[in-house]
C-alpha cells in the first residue's frame, strides 16, 4: 500500500509542477545573465543583456551585467527561453552584449546559423537573425542558400547588397562592382 501512495504523491507533485511551469511568465529583468540573450518575455519582447561600468571605492572599475526588456516585439513567440542546444547549434553566444548583424559577416557563424541543426530546429534564433538581415537589406534564406552553394561568394554578396563595410575591404565595398 505504501508504494501506491508514494506513486500517487509523486504523480500529484509532478502535475502541480507541470501546471506551475505552464503558467510561468518570463520577465527579462528576473532572468539570470546566462539565460537572458535569446529569450522572449511574456509580453513578446526580446530580452537583451546589457552592461555598465561601476567604480569601486578603491578606484577599480568593474563591469556588471543585467537583463532588460527591449522594445523589439516578436510576433510569433512569447514566454521563450532558448535552449542551450539551439544556442550552440546556431553558433550564437549568450554572453554577447547586444546582438548585431555584424555576425552575419563571419563565415563560421553563418555556417552554423544556416546549418540544418539550427535553421530547421531553432525558429527563435532564425527569426532574430532573419530580421537583422532584413534590416540590412539581405534575405537570410538567400544568404543561407548562397552559403550552401558557394560560401565565399555568399559573403561577398552580403557585403555588396547591404552596403556593409568590412574592415580592410573599404576600397572594395565603396568601388563600383565589376559585375
From TrEMBL:
Q: Kindly indicate where the leader peptide sits in this chain.
A: 1-24
Ranges annotated as spanning the membrane: none
Q: Which UniProt keywords apply?
A: Signal
Q: Which organism is it from?
A: Vanilla planifolia (Vanilla)
Q: Which InterPro entries match?
A: PAR1
The name under which this protein is listed is PAR1 protein
Amino acid at each position: 500500500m505504501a508504494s501506491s501512495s508514494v506513486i500517487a504523491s509523486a504523480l500529484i507533485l509532478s502535475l502541480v509542477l507541470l501546471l506551475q511551469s505552464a503558467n510561468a511568465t518570463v520577465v527579462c529583468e528576473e532572468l539570470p545573465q546566462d539565460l537572458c540573450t535569446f529569450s522572449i518575455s511574456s509580453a513578446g519582447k526580446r530580452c537583451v543583456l546589457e552592461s555598465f561600468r561601476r567604480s569601486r571605492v578603491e578606484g577599480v572599475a568593474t563591469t556588471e551585467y543585467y537583463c532588460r526588456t527591449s522594445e523589439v516585439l516578436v510576433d510569433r513567440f512569447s514566454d521563450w527561453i532558448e535552449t542551450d542546444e539551439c544556442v550552440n547549434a546556431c553558433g550564437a553566444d549568450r554572453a554577447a552584449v547586444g546582438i548585431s548583424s555584424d555576425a552575419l559577416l563571419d563565415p563560421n557563424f553563418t555556417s552554423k546559423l544556416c546549418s540544418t541543426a539550427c535553421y530547421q530546429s531553432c525558429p527563435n534564433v532564425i527569426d532574430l537573425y532573419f530580421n537583422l538581415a532584413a534590416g540590412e537589406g539581405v534575405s537570410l534564406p538567400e544568404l543561407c542558400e548562397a552559403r550552401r552553394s558557394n560560401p565565399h561568394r555568399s559573403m561577398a554578396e552580403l557585403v555588396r547588397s547591404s552596403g556593409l563595410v568590412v574592415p580592410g575591404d573599404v576600397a572594395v565595398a565603396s568601388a563600383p562592382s565589376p559585375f
